[in-house]
From TrEMBL:
Residues 61-88 form a coiled coil. SUPFAM superfamilies: GTPase activation domain, GAP, RGC domain-like. One of its GO terms (molecular function) is GTPase activator activity. Residues 188-404 form the Ras-GAP domain. GO terms for cellular component: cell cortex. PANTHER family: GTPASE-ACTIVATING PROTEIN, RAS GTPASE-ACTIVATING PROTEIN WITH IQ MOTIF. PROSITE patterns: RAS_GTPASE_ACTIV_1, RAS_GTPASE_ACTIV_2. Keywords: Coiled coil. This is Ras-GAP domain-containing protein. One of its GO terms (biological process) is negative regulation of Ras protein signal transduction. InterPro entries: RasGAP_C, RasGAP_CS, RasGAP_dom, Rho_GTPase_activation_prot.
């Protein structure tokens, strides 16, 4: 059997070597597929039960050098690039969001943030070089076990995603979506990720208290669903379906379809004033919505706009409804789970109510964000002009109203577009229900899991901080994730010990982490068990191997496929060529064919009819496969280019945000006077970088314990009553946005304790409704502390300018 095993390795396109493991994987895959299928009598049914493995093997051929094999390799490389670049874009988008939140806090408080280099240190950046933080071999093995378990048992990640806070979810999602399941086009990882979604959604439905709140709030679950749509397949769909439609609209930069009566009235009187130099007495500058809506001229302007707006929305809707076959499987499968869970949890829910939930995911989380901000989804270059941008927003509102039934209570001017909803509701619900009509993947996943059990090259590319952050979150919630001592996850976390702290960004290397199961079943035992349980015989394997080699011979000698397949002639032709590999295979396959006939599996008198049919089918499948691969390559080439363009856009946006923060720090934090030559945003004047002003060291300013307690700054104190009169606090500001609070006892030079306080951290605590700041001996009220720092340092400093 050794030669035959080796033959199937080559016939299916695997490298020579560990033939036993490949055959074992073939048997395991076949068994997994056969386990759930109906059993039929006879030889042929068993042969078809193992065909799933053959097709998969043939599609991953690495030995044949025909056009199909080259296209397959090119497609695999392209998909790997898209997966990697998507992850980089996610990191940049997260960093832009982070800076954006800091800018918002800065503007609200009108104060400087921390020094720019402190801010930049938060961002994820990657460089090359050696690191002292690289895990040793033992740690690598422990993390390989841990992440294999997390990847292959998605319930752990599903539970963790529900436990973490909103501030933690983005970093975890980066690891889950783009690292743990980062191969976005590999069936096992995609199916495991979807299994995780099933767990998360089921828990969301189980814990929800009312139907109206399902999947609508900004929660870790909704953030997960949105992030999933940003993976490669979702981006491909958006570009192929929406890009051309959006581009044709934004070309008309001056097309104004505003239908809000107040805005239309304002634009109208501005135009009259511009043309005539004055306003008629009957057109006051400020009017109410009702007055504007009752104006005949405003009505005359709005009426044709409503008609055109509904035509544009109808055009977008028709394009989306006709794209069913392009919607990624994973997104349709999530829609299916939403429908299934709703019916089980709310059996009385109407079809319209169920469709509104499906539409809430498909349109609110997937389609509409791309319509409203197409530049962020790489559908167009640059932001649309003012009027097209407003039109796209109104189209998205109409689609959302159609799919998800939100109210126009606060936007009554949109009510005239309701005929669009009334005319298309049935079409929309039919589409949303059809989205759910996809098969499950459990049989395929079981086959893939068998394959993964014996596969020795499962590898993820992961950063050190991703490992340590995930490890820390698992440790934090281990009692919920793995409550029993013998739970595999608890065992692995115990062995791995305490999670490392986050490393500096310059040391946050990306490493290749091999994954393997700590509790792996010996492949020999697995094979034996499967062969016994599922009655997969040696003849099954021989038949599959023979078919695989014949397909490879015809691909290597394509002229042999031009007429009816003569298996004896094909084997003889290969055995007499000048190619040593083909000669060996030709001789071997002749022996194999004879052995199959001796076993009564095939018969030369009917021209090996069944075997010829199956080989012909496989060749036809591979021929169609080549066409599909070439089409997919063309599509993904465009997607990859867009992703790269978006990466450049995000980098430029990030740099602009950094420059903005630096400039605002200089202006708000002290040291620079406004005046001639000063700028509001940016850090260049006349093309030359401005020199930042030297930061003035402020303080120390002293406050007694009793004074701060009276003012409410100290909310709680552990200092004994009799010592409080001798306790005072000294606050200094060495650089804008940073404060050092030290606690002193009168008569002693050295401080009892010191705390380095960053302004942005304090502002974030205020935003998150954190009431107290712990200084060990005292608890400071966050809001009162901010008021004190503003009054003492910022306002005082501004007065000097």
């Amino acid at each position: 059997m050794g030669d035959r095993q080796n033959g199937i390795v080559q016939g299916a396109g695997y490298a020579n070597g560990n033939g036993t493991n490949v055959v074992s994987r073939a048997v395991a895959a076949a068994a997994a597929n056969n386990h759930h299928s109906s059993r039929k009598g006879g030889r042929s049914s068993k042969r078809y039960s193992v065909s799933a493995f053959y097709s998969m093997a043939a599609e991953q051929d690495v030995e044949v050098e025909d056009e199909l094999a080259k296209a397959q390799r090119r497609l695999r490389d392209l998909k790997a690039k898209i997966s990697g670049q998507s992850k980089k874009n996610f990191v940049l988008e997260r960093d832009v969001r982070y800076l954006d939140s800091r800018i918002a806090l800065l503007i609200q408080n009108r104060m400087a943030l921390d020094e720019q280099n402190e801010m930049v240190s938060h961002l994820e950046e990657h460089d090359d070089g050696e690191s002292d933080y690289y895990p040793d071999d033992r740690k690598m093995q422990q993390y390989g076990n841990l992440f294999f378990l997390l990847q292959s048992e998605p319930r752990h990640i599903a539970t963790l995603c529900r436990l973490v806070s909103l501030s933690e979810i983005d970093t975890l999602l980066q690891t889950v979506m783009f690292t743990l399941y980062g191969n976005q086009y590999e069936s096992r990882e995609e199916h495991l990720l979807l299994t995780m979604f099933q767990n998360v959604l089921a828990a969301q439905f189980e814990t929800s208290t009312e139907f109206g709140s399902l999947l609508r709030a900004n929660t870790p679950v909704s953030r997960m669903m949105t992030t999933y749509t940003r993976r490669g397949p979702g981006q491909t769909y958006l570009k192929s379906v929406l890009a051309e439609k959006i581009y044709s609209l934004i070309e008309h930069k001056d097309l104004n379809l505003e239908i809000n009566p107040l805005k239309v009235y304002e634009q109208m009187i501005n135009k009259i004033e511009e043309d005539t130099g004055e306003l008629p007495a009957n057109l006051p500058r400020s009017v109410t919505t009702d007055v504007a809506a009752a104006n005949p001229d405003v009505q005359a302007i709005i009426e044709p706009r409503i008609k055109m707006l509904m035509e544009i929305a109808e055009s977008f809707l028709s394009t989306i409804l006709s794209s069913m076959d392009k919607v990624p499987y994973g997104i349709r499968w999530i829609c299916k789970q939403i429908r299934s869970l709703t019916k089980r949890k709310y059996p009385e829910a109407s079809d319209f109510a169920i469709c509104s939930l499906i539409g809430g995911f498909f349109f609110l989380r997937f389609i509409n964000p791309a319509i409203v901000t197409p530049q962020a989804y790489m559908l167009v270059d640059g932001a649309p002009a003012k009027h097209p941008r407003r039109t796209l927003t109104m189209v998205a509102k109409m689609l959302q109203n159609l799919a998800n039934k939100p109210s126009y209570a606060k936007e009554s001017y949109m009510l005239p577009t309701n005929p669009f909803v009334d005319e298309n509701k049935q079409r929309m619900n039919k589409f949303l229900n059809e989205l759910c009509e996809v098969g499950d993947f459990y049989e395929t996943l079981e086959m893939d899991q068998y394959m993964a059990l014996s596969k020795k090259d499962l590898i993820i590319n992961i950063t050190l901080n991703e490992i340590y952050n995930t490890h820390a979150l698992l440790q934090q919630h281990v009692d919920i994730l793995a409550p029993k001592e013998k739970d595999h996850l608890r065992i692995l976390l115990t062995e791995a010990g305490t999670a490392n702290t986050q490393v500096p960004r310059k040391d946050n290397k990306t490493i290749e982490l091999p994954l393997f199961s700590r509790w792996e079943i010996p492949i020999q035992d697995l094979t034996t068990a499967l062969m016994s349980e599922n009655n997969i015989t040696q003849n099954d394997i021989l038949y599959m191997e023979t078919k695989a080699i014949y397909v490879q011979l015809v691909r290597s000698l394509p002229h042999l496929s031009q007429s009816h397949l003569d298996l004896d002639y094909i084997a003889e032709t290969a055995a007499t060529t000048k190619d040593a590999t083909l000669v060996r295979k030709g001789i071997k396959v002749k022996d194999m064919l004879r052995e199959l006939e001796d076993a009564g599996v095939v018969d030369h008198r009917d021209g090996y009819k069944l075997l010829v049919e199956e080989i012909t089918q496989e060749l036809a499948h591979l021929g169609n496969l080549k066409e599909m691969i070439m089409q997919e390559i063309d599509s993904l080439d465009a997607v990859f280019k867009s992703i790269l363009d978006h990466n450049n856009y995000l980098r430029s946006q990030l740099e602009s945000y950094k420059a903005y923060l630096q400039n605002v720090r200089i202006q708000s934090g002290g040291g620079e006077k406004g005046g001639k030559g000063s700028v509001g945003i940016g850090v260049e004047v006349d093309g030359r970088p401005k020199k930042p002003a030297k930061a003035q060291f402020q303080g120390p300013v002293k406050f007694g314990h009793n004074q701060l307690e009276r003012d409410g700054v100290i909310a709680e104190s552990n200092v004994p009553e009799n010592r409080r009169p001798n306790i005072y606090f000294a606050i200094t500001s060495p650089i804008p946005g940073t404060f050092i609070i030290s606690l002193h006892y009168k008569g002693r030079d050295k401080a009892i304790l010191e705390m380095d306080l960053k302004l942005d951290d304090l502002l974030e605590k205020q935003q998150d409704n954190v009431q107290l700041l712990d200084l060990e001996y005292v608890q400071l009220d966050v809001n009162k502390t901010l008021q004190l720092l503003n009054k003492t340092f910022v306002t005082k400093n501004r007065g000097k300018r």
